[in-house]
Amino acid sequence: MRSPAVRMFRSLEGLFCVYKPAGVHWKLVRDTIETNLLKGVNATSAQPLPHEVRFLSNPNNKPEAAGGLALRAAAVPVLSKHPLVTGPEFQHIKVGVGHLLDASSSGVLVLAVGNGNRTLNDLYRTRSRREYTLECEFGMATHDFSQMGRVVERSTYDHITLDKMERVISMLEGTNQKALRMYSSVDMSSQEAYELAVKGLLGPDGKSVPILTGLRCIHFQPPNFTLEVQCLNETQKYLRKVVHEIGLELRSTAVCKGVRRTKDGPFTLQDALTRHHWTAADVMLAIQQYRSTKRSKKGSRTLTDKAVLQTSEETLTVSQENEADKETAIAEVQCS
Predict the structure, then answer these.
(1) Which of 40-54 are b and which e, b meaning 16 or more Cβ less than 10 Å from the residue's Cβ?
(2) Average model confidence (pLDDT) across the chain
(3) Chain centre to alpha carbon of residue 259
(4) Domain 129-264: which CATH class?
(5) Which of 36, 109, 273, 311 is 20 to 30 A distant from 181 in Cα terms?
């Protein structure tokens, strides 16, 4: 029979996401969650101690009695199984990490517990895309493209307009669309490529150069502006470099002040657990919600496929009936 701690650990196996604050290393986030999960699992009520039968002397027995020593059978707990002797049932819980975020970035960080690590590997083989919000500023360039880097250049930005910004963004999108088609493993003139593009699944298999699948300016008030990015195989340093290149294309300089991941595959900011909710109970609830959402999506896809199949069968039946009517009409004309 499984102990309460084992049953709780089984319910914790799966995927969930947390909100990583800026200025905190992802290893510290993972270690904190591992510690909280370990405390929560080991804090469950322990099973009652097993008992064994021992023969004990009767306290009322007198050694001087002629009958000798009298013994009685008694069930006593096995102290070698006591938690104070054996220690905690779980000594370590491994928490896997998905796509990493560097220390200065914030946002959605996907984690996995137990068997969820295999699911995490399968999930990121399916060309999962990520979305970011980049807070940027014109007029300054640094050696590492971040706000905290050493300033290497300052420039003016009064000549920059939203129209010029949109033209540069369109140019970058066109260049990345070419890279997306080049690194895709399907023929661009095939039906498969069209269907993948419609579903948003067109992309490289495995590792490739970073590719921006979407880029737009959602806020423009010089010197500050905000970009929304959808990408594949990116790093946060690459995204900061993109901001730097946009500044150069606009005959100025620009630096990225903040990188926030808003979506990672199926996980969004609404699913992310904040620091005060990195407990075993909240993680268990988040994993259960992800499982139920996954099952509901799978069920809706099944119903859609059935509806398409039923529609196709009905269309085929109607066409067969029309063909039969045509053959009957032709036979009647020939007979007349």
Answers:
(1) bbbebeeeeeeeeee
(2) 83
(3) 18
(4) alpha beta
(5) 109
pLDDT in tens, 142-168: 999 999 999 999 999 999 999 999 999
Instruction: Find out whether 169 and 177 touch, Cβ atoms under 8 Å.
Output: no
Q: How many CA atoms lie within 13 A of 127 on its CB side?
A: 17
Question: How large is the average pLDDT for residues 320-333?
Answer: 51
Model's pTM, two decimal places?
0.78
- CA dist 31 → 35, 42, 105 (Å): 6, 17, 18
* Residue 248: other Cβ atoms inside 10 A: 13
Is 273 or 90 the better-scoring residue by pLDDT?
A: 273
The CA-based dihedral angle spanning residues 38, 43, 49, 50, taken in that order and rounded to the nearest 10 degrees: -40
> What are the extents of the domains in the chain?
1-46+89-128+268-311, 47-82, 129-264
Query: What's the distance, CA 288 to chain centroid?
Result: 14
User: Taking the CA of residue 32 as centre, how many other CA atoms within 13 Å lie in the half-sphere pointing to its CB?
Assistant: 15
Looking at per-residue pLDDT, the higher value among 297 and 110 belongs to: 110
Distance of alpha carbon 212 from alpha carbon 231, whole angstroms: 4
Using pLDDT thresholds of 50, 70 and 90, give the confidence band for residue 318.
very low
Candidate list 31, 102, 144, 271, residue with the active-site label: 102
Q: Is 102 a catalytic residue?
A: yes
